[in-house]
Amino acid sequence: MKYNLELIKNKRKIIGFSTVLILLSLLGILYSTFNTSYKKPINLGMDFVGGNELRIERVCEEECSDLSPDSVLENLREISENKNVLNNIKLQLQNNNKLISIRTSYLSIGESNNLITNLEDIVGPLNYESKNSRLIGPKLGKRLLINCVTSLLVSLVAISLYITIRFDKKYALFALLALFHDLFIVFGIFSWLGIILSVEVNSLFAVSLLTIAGYSVNDTVVIFDRIRENLKSKKESHNETIQLSVNESFRRTTFTSITTLIPLLSIILFGSYSLFWFSLSLSLGILVGSYSSILLAPSLLLKD
Amino acid sequence: MKRRQGWLFFIIFLLSLSIYLLISYPLQLGLDLKGGSQLTLQIIKEEGKVSKDELEAVNAVIDRRVNNLGVSESNLQTLGGDQLILELPGEQNPLVASRVLGKTALLEFRTQKAGTSKDLKSLQIQRFKIKELIEQYSSFEKIKYDDNLLINIQNDLQETEQELNYSPTSNDLYGKLIEIKKYIDNEITNLFIKTDLSGRDLINAGRRQEQTRSSWEVLLTFSNSGGDKFAEITKSIAGTDQLLAIILDGESISEAGVGSQFANTGITGGSATISGNFTAENARELEVQLKGGSLPLPIEIVETNTIGALLGSKNILKSLYAAISGLIFVGIFMIFNYRILGLVSVLSLVLYGFFNLALYSLIPVTLTLPGISGLILSIGMAVDANILIFERIREELFDGNTLTRSIDSGFQRANSSIVDGHITTLLSCFVLFLLGTNFVKGFAATLGIGVLISLFTSLNCSKTILRFFTTYQSLRQKNLYLPKNSLSN
User: Fold this and answer.
1) Which residue on chain B is closest to A274 by alpha carbon?
2) CA pseudo-torsion sign A264, B370, B36, B360
3) Do B417 and A136 touch (CB under 8 A)?
4) Do A154 and B431 touch (CB under 8 A)?
5) Is pLDDT of A262 > 50?
6) Is A78's CB within 8 Å of B144's CB?
């Protein structure tokens, strides 16, 4: 099986496609910054802004009775001592009314426990064994955010240094360009997800960006290596050698992406809910990363 | 050939060692897998950084308090320069721990300023009233709809505000009540003068039920010098109308007079009792705090994570499904595309899994959900190296080389690009591990360990297994290594 990607012919299309993706991402980021309630480039989750998240299951025989979130909230307001607790409350029912998930601003453990007792008075017995509660103070959130941004910057600098030492200037520049292209697009997709589906990003999102960075550069390195090797030995023209090298390493790159995507898909399908968005952003990153390693980065190397 | 056999034995030895390790040292599970609570305590310092000594001092106090609380299997560790992490496994309620740990527990003994008896009396009455109001309000919110009660509370509150000449800034009723109580506490404390006797002078604390009532009292035992100080202080106010206040974190928990019979020697014996209407629980919490000593710097609980045991075991099951299905589908993909070579990579993946888990129990790495996702993700990356090698072998076979030669040069030529390619991933893991939170560290650790081990399994183990396979004549046909359609091409 030989692959024949017409890189030279399609250079404009590839660069155009990437430009459109980047512009769409930029649009999402700008829209998110100026036109949403949270006024941030991306919808920051509890990890970064602080708050209280509670998920707990009801104890029901066979099926759980119908509940309306609004009436539960109304009842909660009536029996709560400290009304401030309920200022920014959001309540959702999932799994046929079985799973109750609540978001509020930051509470102390005592206040959170009161909230659960009050909730139990309204909706009936709850299964404490199924409880998942997270309370994050606003101070810690800010710190986590700073921490994540620093980690990202530090590792980007480290990767850039490594690439610059390993390749000559032109290669390094394009490899890094491809890397930022990947990260920017994944970021943009999550800006859009935040706008449309109110998806929030947490520290695991930052981790996924870092992992994508490592992975995407790895892919590009393998292809650039091949190009360098072939440029030394082959007689074909510069552009044709690049196209040939890409086709030679095409199988390898797609296969490794597939074998990395398979486990991620199984986490998305079977894994715990808390890993869902994490695995999704990793998968997106690997898809975009493979595209940029195979098509974008080598196209940039082509001479006009 | 001999050397390869040596490797085969070595790998079998490693595999049995891993299985032995896994059986005798079970994996440590994080809270998101076994259920429990995790509290993050932040040390608060207004200016400058928290020094190492201060961190240790806070750590020691918290450690004593946790021990005295009698929480089983708890785990306390420091994080960064100014945070502590406390893990409470199982169904233990983090509420009590948070109440006991969060307080500075600065115990002071103060004597009343002369001539303030009247002021104190009226403040004490106000304090009593406001406590009543808070209680009434709580019960009102529970039973509901006795609107008269609510109006009464509001009226009483207004009256108190006027008497105190203080108007709270809070908007809601509950906030107002709490604010006024704080104001009164503060005013009372200000009527007393500091002495040099404090919580530092205690050597022990205890509690007992009061004889005539159902409430509890807390017993204090002073050190020798503390006992002397206590005698001195009580002597100075004995027989006067000045009271002795015991103040905890700025709030007076007891005010009592000293009888004139103590005017000559003061109260000797080196002990004192605080009877301030404690419930059994309050008394125990105060006891634990006093035994542990006061915190040199205040702390704040900035994060609490609670996960029920049932949810934890569900998480384990889900992760297991994800890991196994990931492994199976990657295996199918590899065998479909690379035949015998695919089988080799599946076998080395299984070895990879065992080595990884064994290393987790050896180091030890606490397994958390992000950690598991790092492990699952590294399955894909471990195959990456195999694919690089197999592609090279395929190319060699296409060029008409013999099987043995192709295998040899495939491994040789892919070597450098594999090591190279993993460096960027390792860089990211390293940064994550240095800068990340606990949660993130788990992911970085498993992914990093995974990438390192995969270098060994995909280079050495695969080669050894492949060599072993090729010793059988029947397994040496080329078409077992290349799908037919690709050969015909």
Assistant:
1) B369
2) positive
3) no
4) yes
5) yes
6) yes
- pLDDT 10s digits, B113-157: 988 889 999 999 999 888 888 888 877 766 655 667 778 888 888
Judged by average pLDDT, the poorest of A241-250, B96-105, B242-251 is: B96-105
Q: Contact B424/A217, CB-based, under 8 Å?
A: yes
- In this prediction, the answer to ipTM > 0.90 reads no
Token couple for B154: 């509001």
Among B420, B424, B435, the residue with its CB nearest the CB of A214 is B424
Helix (H) or strand (E) holding B382: helix B369-398
Residues 6+ apart with CB under 8 A from B298: B43, B44, B104
- Partner-chain residue, chosen from B98, B426, B432, that has the shortest CB–CB distance to A207: B432
Judge whether A128 is closer than 8 Å to chain B, CB to CB: yes
B284: CB partners within 8 A, 6+ apart = B207
In this complex, the residue of A155, A206, A270 whose CB is nearest that of residue B325 is A270
Per the prediction, chain B carries an average pLDDT of: 85
Chain B contact present for A106, CB below 8 A: no
Q: Between A162, A251, A263, which is nearest B377 by CB?
A: A263
Mean pLDDT of B164-184: 84
**Given a cut of 70, is residue B483 above it in pLDDT?**
no
From the list A273, A156, A266, the residue with the least C-alpha distance to A209 is: A156
- Strand ordering across the sheet containing B83-89: A90-94, A99-104, A51-58, A126-136, B299-307, B36-43, B83-89, B75-79
B285 touches chain A (CB under 8 A): no
Residues of chain B numbered 362-401 and touching chain A (CB < 8 Å):
369-370, 373, 376-377, 379-381, 383-384, 387-388, 391
Q: Quick one: tokens of B328?
A: 């199976």
Interval B290-303 mean pLDDT: 86
Q: What share of chain A in percent tops pLDDT 70?
A: 99
Query: What's the rounded Cα separation, in Å, for the pair A28 and A40?
Result: 11
Domains of chain B: 2-29+312-486 (1.20.1640.10), 36-102 (3.30.70.3400), 107-277 (3.30.1360.200)
Q: Are A106 and A135 in contact (CB under 8 A)?
A: yes
Query: Average pLDDT in the A263-272 region?
Result: 92
Asked if residue B178 has pLDDT above 50, the reply is yes
What confidence tens digit (pLDDT) does each residue in A138-185 have?
A: 888 888 899 889 888 888 898 888 888 888 888 889 999 999 999 999
Per-residue pLDDT, B489 = 41
Three-state SS for A5?
Answer: coil
Q: Say which of A82, A127, A252 has its CB closest to residue B388.
A: A252
Whole-angstrom CA distances from A78 to A72, A122, A292, B143 are 10, 11, 56, 10
Query: Which among B318, B380, B381 has the least Cβ separation from residue A272?
Result: B318
Would you call B32 an interface residue with chain A, using a CB distance cutoff of 8 Å? yes
Do residues B199 and B107 lie in contact, with contact meaning Cβ atoms separated by under 8 Å?
Answer: yes
Given CB atoms, is A133 within the 8 Å cutoff of chain B? yes
- Distance, in Å, from the CA atom of A58 to the CA atom of A94, rounded to the nearest integer, reads 11
CA separation, residue B379 to residues A31, A103, A171, B174, B361 (Å) = 38, 35, 29, 55, 19
pLDDT at B488 over 70: no
Model confidence at B425, in pLDDT bands (50, 70, 90)? Answer: confident
Nearest CA in chain B to A1: B486
Predicted confidence at residue A1, as pLDDT, reads 52
Interface list for A 154-183 with B (CB within 8 A): 154-155, 158-159, 162, 166
Instruction: Tell me the residue type at A71.
Output: S
Chain A positions touching B142 (Cβ under 8 A) are 79
Report the mean per-residue pLDDT for chain A.
Answer: 89
Element (H, E) at B7: helix B2-24
Distance (Å) from the alpha carbon of B129 to chain A's nearest alpha carbon = 18
